[in-house]
Amino acid sequence: MKNYKITINGKTYDVGVEEADGGVEVKSVQAAVSAPKAAPAAPAPATAPAPKAAAAPKAAGSGDVTAPLPGTVLSVAVSEGQQVKAGQVLVIFEAMKMENEIVAPAAGTVKKVHVSKGAVLETGTPVVSIG
User: Fold this and answer.
1) pLDDT, tens digit (0-9, with 9 covering 90-100), for 22-34
2) Rounded-to-integer distance, Cα 64 and Cα 17, Å
3) What CA–CA distance (Å, rounded) separates 129 from 131?
């Protein structure tokens, strides 16, 4: 059995590896008691930018809500003329084998629905116009 020290994200692990039947098999993994090395401190900017929210649909100047990533529309939850609240689900689409929701960025009235069930979305595709 061979022992190795592996450092991942500043944390060191002792790993025991044994070769068996032509393959390699990990026998043990233990965290070593070693403090991670501190990175040199960078001077802080005068004002740090606020953290950005997770990828949310963009509301363009005309009130268009756009697709945040490519996918396929599974359902449209609103219709033209309908009043919507901020955060209300407008469209559910599939991307990367996961269901995702596109929500209203602000309250308003649905002026136009640009997509229907089965439509293929590209990043930035207008989905719904809210006024």
Assistant:
1) 665 555 555 544 4
2) 56
3) 7
Tokens 């960078």 belong to 42
Specify the long-range contacts of residues 82-86, CB closer than 8 Å, at least 24 apart: 82/109, 82/110, 83/107, 83/108, 83/109, 83/110, 84/108, 84/109, 84/110, 84/130
Pull the structure tokens for residue 18. Answer: 């044994």
CA–CA dist 87, 21 (Å, integer): 57
- For the whole model, what pTM was predicted? 0.53
Per-residue CA distances from 32 to 6, 14, 17, 28, 118 (Å):
9, 6, 16, 12, 52
Q: Backbone phi, then psi, for 44, in 5-degree steps?
A: -75, 140
pLDDT of amino acid 54: 38
Is the distance from CB of 92 to CB of 32 less than 8 angstroms? no
Helix or strand or coil: residue 15?
strand
Distance CA 51, CA 43 (A): 18
User: What domains does the chain contain, in order, with CATH numbers?
Assistant: 2-31 (no CATH), 64-130 (2.40.50.100)
